[in-house]
UniProtKB/TrEMBL annotation:
It is an enzyme of class 3 (hydrolase). Zn(2+) binds at C167. Residues 18-391 form the Glycoside hydrolase family 42 N-terminal domain. Keywords: Glycosidase, Hydrolase, Metal-binding, Zinc. The keyword Transferase does not apply. GO terms for cellular component: beta-galactosidase complex. The active site is at E159, E314. Its EC number is 3.2.1.23. This is beta-galactosidase. GO terms for molecular function: beta-galactosidase activity; metal ion binding. InterPro entries: Beta_galactosidase_C, Beta_galactosidase_Trimer, Class_I_gatase-like, GH, Glyco_hydro_42, Glyco_hydro_42_N, Glyco_hydro_b.
Amino acid sequence: MSRGPRSVRFTTPAYGGDWNPEQWFADADADAILDEDIAKMREAGVTLVTLGVFSWSRLEPEEGRYELDWLEGILDRLHAAGIGVDLATGTASPPVWMALNHPESLPVDARGVRLGFGSRQQYSPNSTAYRTAALALVDRLADRFGDHPALVLWHVGNEFACHVRECFSEESKEAFRAWLEARYSSIEALNRAWGTDFWSQRYTSFAQVSPPSAMPSFPNPSQVLDWRRFTDDSFRSLFEAEAAVIRAHSTRPITTNFMGAFPVLDYRKWAECVDVVADDSYPDPADPLAAHEIAFAGDLMRGLGGGAPWILMEQAPGAIQWRSRNSPKRPGQFLLWSLSRLAHGADAVLQFQWRQSRAGAETFHSGMIPHAGAVSRTWDEVLETGRALSRLGPVVGARTEAGIAIVVDWESEWARAASIGPTEEPAEPLFALARHWHRTAWEAGYQVDLVGPEADLSGYSLVIVPGVFIDRPALTDALAAAAQGGAQVLVVGPSGVVDESAHAILGGYLGSARGLLGVAVADHAALTGPVRGDFDSPSGPASAVSRITRAVGAPAACTSIGLRICSEDLADRLSALAGPDARARCGMWAEELVGYGRSDAGAENGGCGDAGGEARAFTRADGLPPDVDAVAVFDESEGGADLAGMPALTRRMFASGGAAWYLACHLDDVTARALFDLLAGRAGAAPVMVGLPDGVEACRRGDFLFLLNHSDASVRVRGVRGTELLSGRSVEDGIEVSPRSGVVVAAPA
């Protein structure tokens, strides 16, 4: 299951969750509760539990005084019951003595307010006192339990940066200055990288530099981008320090729990530090897109691990407690979503938590044993899921093959969020544009890998690069090799807008990709949507007296732009999806494209749109280069008045049959699907199955076909043969799948 020598090997998918038995130590019948818990675990088919995540105050009740006997007793009891342990280091929630003895360890927010004790994760990642105490605790745990027979793997910290995403303490400021000096060597190099001659921000020493705390106006985007990098490095250095202590005592694998597409930490870098990727995932049962959220998160984790299986470290058996309103999982969804995790590459399905808390901030976060106990639907579904997973041993270790890749880049997301304009983008959800294209592929039934900009793209026939804001020359080289080798490459704007210091690319956006694509972005042309309400708008009730302003055009106040398709193939695919009268449309992001460069010996002229004449680098009047086609152009409808006739989608063909496409807008769902179908067809990619009923997701993992019915109706899926693993029955020509359930079919031998 691991990419390295410290591997995690399961015989069946691991099943269990966080167990926090210290919650019951004060009860008169605490020992009986522990016995009951372990008996219930065996009944439910639990094979792995996470221990000690929030146990620091029990493990070290006073600074320097350790009490570990209770933990050893629980490890012994679990081992005797045949249950493995994911042992946490306990460092996620420092005890009260840390706050009292070392108040400087408490985090400070951007306004200079020091946060107090009484919640969790109340530490600065740059606190020397915190780090010293944390490593001392880890050393005690690893020395004593590093070879315990119950120990399966180590769990460092918990959800790093979930609550304290940055710290502005004096220690953090000093650490930031040291980080900057190591990165830039000289203050002049920092001044150049940050563009400090604007707004009179020049520094003459590193001692003058501070983090981007609360300011009168906009912060320097380059400074913010480096602060993001520094913060990520700070938290990751904590993980690496704890992991190094563990490795000195124990050979068991080490992980920590990621949180999906979390905006604060660059999990590509973190994945290189863990022995196995693990994730926490809490999709909303009230959201119809929850099924896609599971698929996206699973594909992301699989990609972070280089295709290796991963661990679902946390999901909820029922409702959570931290949204403003919290819906429980619907009947059947607990097993269905657990199967979906396996379908997307997981080898373990763990929950938070085993027994629902009686007190504290997570009292109403569901547990595998709920407040009602065994007389509940939750417990029935816990038993059902345990039985199902126990039958899926053959799936463990199997890998997923995908011919389509979508590139995601954390630093590009940071740079886009730090930029002041051209549009204000929310920091979450991360990878919004990548999610859109992933969902497009998912709804169409295709399997996708989510990969970083440094990935080897040679095995993919279709590569989509949605909004990689930082220009990545190495990525461009890989894309060029892919297109020249026969792949379809789609780059979606805004891409290649800034360099690694968040400086604008000059000479036309797209940077290093301009030559590959044959176009450059001359300007962004985003729509704003309405800027006034109907009451005070000159087109509203006041129009009768607005003689001047009622004649003023404002296409940017629209929320979409129409497109005219120049390609018969694309037009046919759009008509097939939405009827002969369907119109191609895009949303509020658009760009003005110009031609760039010349055709080369390997390219072929396509010929649709305004192509013609000799194309010189970045000369708009010449139109597109001869080897670049305009596949779609903006029309004059809605917000397109000033863009009409300009290319919205271009294609540069290569002799190999590959092509480099550029999309200068964000398509609506139907138009995006039409384009995806066109690209997938030209790439020779195929969906897992065709003709599936509504609501059914098909995933192939190794020799196993997962059919996941997310709908409320029973369906029959035809064309399926093999052995259904959950029931053991033979399947000859199709299978029934109940509402909100799934089946797993092994291919015939």
